[in-house]
């Protein structure tokens, strides 16, 4: 897959040590034809070759949403925090 086809924030699945993981792209690395992907369920970042990243539309669990909100706060990304809160927290009320 061409590294330019997927962008920051796109959700992808990929294999890491024989385990399927689901995360979102936080960085494109075109010179290495790879992505850096954050996986909410592990709280870790992984580097994945572009050819191994499969585009996905995930169904987020409450723990995933909380991890994303925590990440938005860590990054001091107020816009993302507001979007996550509006999209996911208001549904549960």
Describe this structure in words.
By secondary structure, the protein is of the alpha+beta class. The chain folds into two domains: 11-55; 62-92. It has helices at residues 62-74, 78-89, and strands spanning 11-16, 19-29, 34-39, 44-49, 54-55. A five-stranded antiparallel beta sheet has the order 4-3-2-1-5, with no helix packed on it. α1 runs antiparallel to α2. The radius of gyration is 14 Å and the shape is globular. The relative contact order is 0.16. InterPro entries: IDEAL_dom (IPR014957). Pfam families: IDEAL. Residues 53-88 form the IDEAL domain. This is IDEAL domain-containing protein.
Topology of this structure?
Layout (H helix, E strand, L loop, with lengths): L10 E6 L2 E11 L4 E6 L4 E6 L4 E2 L6 H13 L3 H12 L4
Antiparallel strand pairs: 1-2, 1-5, 2-3, 3-4
Helix pairs in contact: 1-2
InterPro entries: IDEAL_dom
Pfam family, one: IDEAL
Organism: Alicyclobacillus fastidiosus
Question: Which keywords apply here?
Answer:
2 helices; 27% helix; IDEAL domain-containing protein; single chain; globular; five-stranded antiparallel sheet; 93 residues; alpha+beta
Q: Which term fits the overall shape?
A: globular
How much helix, percentage-wise, in residues?
Answer: 25-40%
Rg calc: 14 Å
- Tell me the number of structural domains: 2
Order of helices and strands: EEEEEHH
Helix tally equals 2
What low-confidence regions span 5 or more consecutive residues with pLDDT below 50?
Answer: none
**Strand numbers in spatial order across the main sheet:** 4-3-2-1-5
* Mean pLDDT rating: 87
Name the beta content range: 25-35%
Q: Which structural class matches the secondary elements?
A: alpha+beta
